[in-house]
Amino acid sequence: MGIPKFFRYISERWPMISQLIDGTQIPEFDNLYLDMNSILHTCTHANDDDVTKRMSEEEVFAKIFTYIDHLFHTIKPKQTFYMAIDGVAPRAKMNQQRARRFRTAMDAEKNLQKAIERGEEIPKGEPFDSNAITPGTEFMAKLTENLKYFIHDKISNDSVWASTNIILSGHEVPGEGEHKIMDYIRILRAQTDYNPNTRHCIYGLDADLIMLGLSTHDPHFALLREEVTFGRRQKAKPLEHQNFFLLHISMLREYLELEFNEIADELRFEYSFERVLDDFILVMFVIGNDFLPNLPDLHLNKGAFPVLLQTFKEALRHTDGYINEQGTINLVRFKVWLQYLSEFELMNFEKDDVDVEWFNQQLENISIQGEKKRARIGKKLLLKQQKKIVGMIKPWLIKTVSEDLDVSNMTSDEQIPTLPLEGETIKENLGFLKEIAFDLGLFVVHSQSKDTYSLRLDVDGINPQETEDERKERIQTLRKTVKKYEQAVLVEDKEELEDEQRIYNERFDQWKDKYYKEKLGFSYYDEQNMKDLTENYVEGLQWVLYYYYRGCQSWSWYYRYHYAPRISDVQKGIDQIIKFNLGKPFRPFQQLMAVLPERSKQLIPPVYRPLMFDPKSPILDFYPSEVELDKNGKTADWEAVVKLSFVDEDRLIDAMSTYDEKLSPEEKKRNSFGKDLIFLFNPQVDNIYKSPLSGIFSDIEHNHCVEREFVSKSMDGLKYRFGLPPGVKLGVGALAGFPTLKSIPFDHKLEYNECLIFQQPSKQQSMLLYIKDIFEQNSLTLDDVAKRFMGGIIYTRWPFLRESKLVSVTDGEIIYEAVEISDNQNGKRLKIKHRQLDEAEKKNFKSQKSTMRRNYSIQRGVVLDDVRAIVKVVPVNGLARDSDGAYRKTFSSIEEFYPLQLIVEDVENKDERFMEKPPLPIEEEFPQGSDVIFLGDYAYGGKATVDGYSSSTRLKLTIEKRSSRSEPNIGKVRARIDQNNVRYYPSYIISKKLRIHPLFLSKITSKFLITDLNNRKIDVGLMIKSEGRHEKVLGYARRNVKGWEYSDLTVNLLTEYRRTFSDFFEKLAQQGRNIPSIEEIYPDATAEELKALVSNVTGWLKDVKQSFVTVSLESDSLTKASIAAVEDEIEKFVQLADHSELRQLAKVPREAILDPKVSLTLLRSQKFELGDRVIYVQDSGKVPLFSKGTVVGYTTIGNSLSIQVLFDDEIVAGNNFGGRLRSKRGLGLDSSFLLNLTNRQFIYHSKASQKVKETVATGKRNQKNAISNRVAQKKKSEELKKKQAHELLTVIKKGEETTSENPRNAPQNQPQEDEKKSVLETSKEKSGTEVVVNPDGTVVHNVYNAVFNQFSNGAQQMPQQQAPYGLPYHIPPGMTPTNFPPVGMHPPPIYSIPPHMMPPNMACPPNGVFPVDEAASKELTSLLNTQGSSVHSKQDTTTGTPTDRVNGKKPFANNNRGNSRRGNYRGRGGYRGGKRNDAPKGSVKMSAAST
Asked: Are 926 and 1152 a contacting pair, CB within 8 Å?
């Protein structure tokens, strides 16, 4: 079954079957099952197309561990976590496995060859062969051992894992992963104590899981899967940013109910939806699955799905019962459906076989297409005899109906107009007579005594009170009907029709014969081969149905052909008795030899390898070097039929048997079968569990996990349970969180609606739901709604209901709002107010209304005839503990809007996670011996153990302060540096600077669409911002309340765009609001020129965007250089000596501690900034408890905040942030896992710590006053410096005036003069941003160099050379301060030159201090005194490189004297660290601020 196609198709037909996982807004589940092979392929196939990358096994295992843990904590199963890896498969599956693995090996070889041809560097060593994901390989054996280690680690250190039963069914246990899961569920359901409302969730990507889920008939069932994207391959997202969806079986069931409702009253037997569902599963098998090929021409993308449904419905109308009888096919009823399905085959035959001869033989007369064509144009097909009957009826009928008939008085048959009919012609065409009689309002009367027929007017069908107009209309209708018969296509006689039918059948048989010869190598007329083929196919249908409903009934059976029989021929295999022999599965090495190609021989034990390539091998023909592929009507390469020979089991086993004894002990172990294992937490167990990868993963020092063989529950005296279990809750009675359509009334209809599914409009029909307004039907006014629900809990987001509080409701004219008012007696209470909307609000209502109707229709297939009112709500997002210890609902700060008719008043089963709880006694809320988080000043975020209770409200605690070291501030330092280096400007400043229109700037920096020669839309914009998507590219753009701002990187990028494609850029700037075509932009260019231009532009843009990091507007990150610097310092920091200490405290109030497991909402309310220090406070998840780290980025994902943390120590689940780290210290986490140590937002101060706090605050105030005094002194100094700067400028001008007297320079003077005027012009724009235009004049440049190069080398670093484009993560090390103080020391205050004061070619020194260079200072004095000298840039004649010279001399030859007279970290500012009078005479004393 085509995996993505099937999922996509049902998603298009039934748009609301899937739910995006959004925080806790999903149901709770009892059991989570992982089809592990989906994870293995996801974690190992990441670089299949990129042969230049290699993943080590350790990386693969770490990735798998992380993925498993992520899925576990996404679902958080309450009872069982079952992981199933594919073991040895049934023989029926091996054919497909063999085909896939041969094709995979061929594709890998082709990709490698292409890379070599492109000249790409291929890494040393063998790439990971995905065929290693096959039972029995060394990789799978290592995987099992590493998974055991991982499970032991999680159970020992993660409280959520420890409270769950963990079952592992490894590769050594025979059976496919998903079917091992289904066996477990079947046995569970068969138990007498089975809870019919058990909540199941299966993770897996296989479409078969959808059918398996339906086959259980348990409605509380969902499939977990990643977001599916179609079209171009998307850049892989970090796991924490990956969207996951739940496909709800309950929603799929309800949509299917709507599909089959139409036949509920038309069956000859009792209608049962559960039985129809079983039949539906069987019907879907014929479009293909892992064990059988699809029936010819039945392709999902070619309209097979509606054909299957419609023919199945028609078959049920004509059978005496259901086809699927608890997993057994009723072959008689199945044959009825095949007969209806065969009409689809005839249509395909007619479409393929039409030629000139077809029309010459008049086959249109008896073809299905001909019949449809005649129906479309309103023509009949009649024999000449039938045409004569029409001639007999017409004159009598027209005369009769034209008369005035008193039908009310026609009480006897004799009074009713009758036409006698005689002759054999009537008897031979009796069927036709009945047809025309029905169409003309007559009925046929047969006289048995005379054996004659007559036509009688149906007077009961005539209205006795009809008006004259109605009478005329009735007569006109009859005339038209008669005319239709008169203009029919005529056939001579029945013999002619029979001849045409015979020719038709012959051509149909020839068409099928051609198929069998081309595909299967034998003739349609070969009865024995046809019998074998069709019986084998019908056997296959029964084997698959047993596999789904009862488990594997035969390990050795398989379908022996690459293709299925024609639909109409399947009936030939019906007449048989089907029995299966259970047999036994292959051994792991036998399967490896059966499915692997010679290219993957390194995965097989060495003793067997010669069998794959030795010319003398008896099974060499099993391993061809090339295989033939046949797409067979499919579109994708992976869907092609791989025409490989089928492995002969006996030959294979015989050939291997001579080598079996040569296997090593380890290999023999791999070739044996194993058992399922269960892992349980046992606090009494405390031992060391050795790591299978020593040096990569550390030993588990305190292992509390025990593993033993898992034994399934007994089936003695029990049978598998089919259908719905008794006591199950459905529809509106379903358990909390499980969606249903039935909570709101609606009508439904299948229509073409172009629903937007997976970012693309659907081309198929969708089930549209037409919503009924229950509030309007119940005559509830807006006032009634407000009084009943305002301020209370209602349910929104139908059908995925969530609790919300109603804030307001409006109909576009009046709004009702809930307002809190203070009451001296009762405190705060809610009051409902209403008011008229102003014009802006009315306009907004109309816009919202229009948007809602459009979005619900396109995105969900929900049709809203009108939106009478819109409600505003705030959804419940959790519970928070109040000061009394009670847990109250908390609400999101984000308001949501819904149409009133989609509001649900109440639900039967409420979600316990959001039910408010009264306060518990302190000993129940915090039991003695339990661990909590301390929020006091002494050890904020530290571990606290409850020792006892001082009173009913106070606790005794033992506090563990795990570290005595001060937290490193490297993160904050680097955040400030990044802020200074990446400067942003308002958009209007950028447009002025680049001299482009503001509107064009907005378009070119986002999406700018043009159409190419094929009228396809091409985006030639930079896409560094997106208002609609609420996104930006880090380092390039940001959004604030005043609008967009752009960085220097954006300026460079735009400049590069304009320089590279100058003419194209200018022409884009001239375009209007419409989407221009490339021909309109360049009307005179040739097609080849335009094609080349578009290719060059899109290629350049693709390269530019390669390194973009696109995030939401609220996201931010440190640069790559800063992240690396933080990692460097943290590695040093963790090496420092440290110690922990314990302290016992009494009378600690509850506010001073935190139980993180029940404080998720509180923790999510924290604010985080770049550089903050954080600590991991949950005892579950991917990170060890109390691990510390530094915030290096944050991203908003929906309503949640993901924090990117660089942890102090490496973690198993960590990553390197896309190459920005050397070690695996990085991880993105939800903010509920962390406590902010830098911004301590929940800190509790005792009386003692409050005194300390006040003392510190007093010290800060005194320090602030001292700083204010220094600022005042500094202001006076700056006024003096301004005067000096003015004098300096006067000197410059005088020098230039002298130079301008030279006639040779006269033509250049005026432009230079204009430039000089802007050198020191600094304008503070409305936004408050200072914009500096860097001086370009040569004289000014030399003087600036003279001023600033008088300081030592620390001041000579060149500024960052921004690349034309690229991420802001590549700041050269020399640009930013790197010589931070040793870890553990207090760093000095860093005084940097304000960015707007930085001179050209000047970087901030490491410690913010510029030491004076004596020689350079003297040369500056000399330069200023020589006003009329020639000051300009010359070229060094010896090196050929530009060099600044003053009067022909290199000005700063001796400027490398360091801080010889000052301590590295002593003092403040430019003059501290040495005596002021120590400066050499004649030097210019200038602080950083003076620039």
From this structure: no
d(CA 170, CA 139): 12
Q: Where are the domains of the chain?
A: 1-88+140-263+676-723, 90-134+587-675, 380-487, 768-914, 920-964+1139-1153, 983-1116, 1246-1299, 1335-1359+1398-1491
Q: What's the CA gap between 1012 and 1009, in Å, rounded?
A: 10
**Integer Cα distance of 1354 and 1459 in angstroms:** 10
Question: How would you class 742 by CB atoms within 10 Å of its CB: exposed for 0-12, middle for 13-18, buried for 19 or more?
Answer: middle
Distance CA 354, CA 372 (A): 15
Q: Which fold has domain 920-964+1139-1153?
A: SH3 type barrels. (2.30.30)
Give dist(CA 1298, CA 1292) in Å, integer.
10
pLDDT above 60 for 696: yes
DSSP-assigned letters across all residues of 1192-1256: EEEEEETTEEEEEEEESS--TT-B-TTTT-SSS-EEEEEGGGEEESSS-TT-B--HHHHHHHHHH
Confidence of residue 908 (pLDDT cuts 50, 70, 90): very high
**Domain 768-914 class in CATH:** mainly beta
pTM, full prediction? 0.76
Residue 1399 pLDDT greater than 80, yes or no = no
Q: Do domains 1-88+140-263+676-723 and 380-487 have the same CATH topology?
A: no
User: If we measure between CA atoms, which residue out of 1210, 1201, 1206 comes closest to residue 1232?
Assistant: 1201
User: Residue 18 has what DSSP assignment?
Assistant: E
For the chain, how many residues are written?
1491
**Looking at the domain covering 1-88+140-263+676-723, what would its CATH class be?**
alpha beta
User: What are 469's two structure tokens?
Assistant: 């107009």
CA distance 593 to 655: 10
What class has domain 380-487?
A: alpha beta
Rounded to whole angstroms, the Cα distance separating 1487 from 1480 reads 15
Query: Given pLDDT bands bounded at 50, 70 and 90, which one contains residue 109?
Result: confident
Q: Give 64-103 pLDDT, tens digit per residue.
A: 999 999 999 999 999 999 999 999 999 999 988 998 888 8
Can the peptide bond before residue 799 be classed as cis, meaning omega within 30 degrees of 0? yes
Q: Is 1225 exposed, middle or buried (0-12, 13-18, 19+ CB in 10 A)?
A: buried
What residues contact 359, with CB distance under 8 A and at least 6 apart?
none
First to last CA, the chain: 72
19, 800 in Cβ contact below 8 A? Answer: yes
Burial readout 801-817 (b: 16 or more C-beta within 10 A, e: otherwise): bbbbbbbbbbbbeebbb
Query: Helices in 550-664 by DSSP H: which ranges?
Result: 588-595, 610-613, 649-657
Torsion over CA: 676, 681, 683, 689 (sign):
positive
3-state secondary structure of 1304: helix
User: 131 with 594: CB under 8 angstroms?
Assistant: no
Helices and strands of the chain, counted as H and E runs: 41, 55
Kind and range of the H or E run holding 1433: strand 1433-1435
pLDDT band at 1252, cuts 50/70/90?
Answer: low
CATH of 90-134+587-675, one of 1.25.40.1050, 3.50.50.60, 1.20.120.160, 1.10.10.250: 1.25.40.1050
Instruction: Kindly state the helix (H) or strand (E) to which residue 36 belongs, with its residue range.
Output: helix 36-44
Question: CA-to-CA distance for 164 and 79, rounded, in angstroms?
Answer: 5
**Which amino acid appears at position 360 of this protein?**
N
* pLDDT reading at 1439 higher than 70: no
Q: Which residues does residue 1077 pair with via DSSP β-bridges, in sequence order?
A: 1011
Q: Are 774 and 882 within 8 A, CB to CB?
A: no
Give the C-alpha separation, 1339 to 1343, whole Å. Answer: 6
Q: Between the CA atoms of 352, 356, 358 and 363, what dihedral angle is there, to the nearest 10 degrees? A: 120
Instruction: Give the single-character DSSP code of 620.
Output: G
Q: Which two tokens stand for residue 1436?
A: 């060094």
Convert 948-959 to b/e letters by CB count within 10 Å (16 or more is b): ebeeeebbbbeb
